[in-house]
Amino acid sequence: PRQFVVPATFKQAAQSEQASEWEEADRKALDAILLYPGNRIVPISVPIDQGLPIARCVTQRRIKVDAATGGLESRNAFKARHCVDGGHLQMLLTRKGIGTTSDSSSSVADEMLVKMMLADTALRGRRLLKADVPNAYPQGKRTGRPLTYMAMPEAFRNMRADDGSQLCIELATPMWGERQAGFEWQLELERTLESLGWRRAEN
Prior knowledge:
There is one protein chain. The protein has 203 residues and is α+β, with helices and mostly antiparallel strands. It is built from six helices and six strands; from the N terminus they run ααβαβββααββα. Strands 1-6-5-2 form a four-stranded mixed beta sheet. The protein has a two-stranded antiparallel sheet with strand order 3-4. The protein starts with 9 loop residues before the first helix and ends in an 8-residue tail after the last helix.
């Protein structure tokens, strides 16, 4: 099978033979963040004036390969995801004396839960086409903690405000890389399941 190399850095992506594909993947990843209400691009003066830190952005990239042919998938083969550098954010918050009280624990779907979901699908007479939730974490709700500010992805570092100042991303939703994001997404998932008639097991 053909081997595909995933660039580890923006520089490698920009210098690769698939530079245009990676550029498009980075743009779609930024659009995916800004799709959710409250997430927006703002001047860095916004968090600075509030005494809030700006976390680094880490971009994860991957290539989707067609298992049948060993070649690239026909649609959206080049994928990117912009994430908060959670360790860096936590260090900055600690330095500023900003505590975080939100829970950071989350459950893992085990075999029994998967079987229950399959049984529920069959009971309702539905076709289960996909079990994944695209862009799950940003669909959660922040649990009483301040907004997070993330640096622009490296592909967009040259973007400037009208007055020429640097920009960053204001995050009103949980985001990949944040310590609390998994727990906040779990709360949203539980609310949705309960609205469908599911009930939490007592044990």
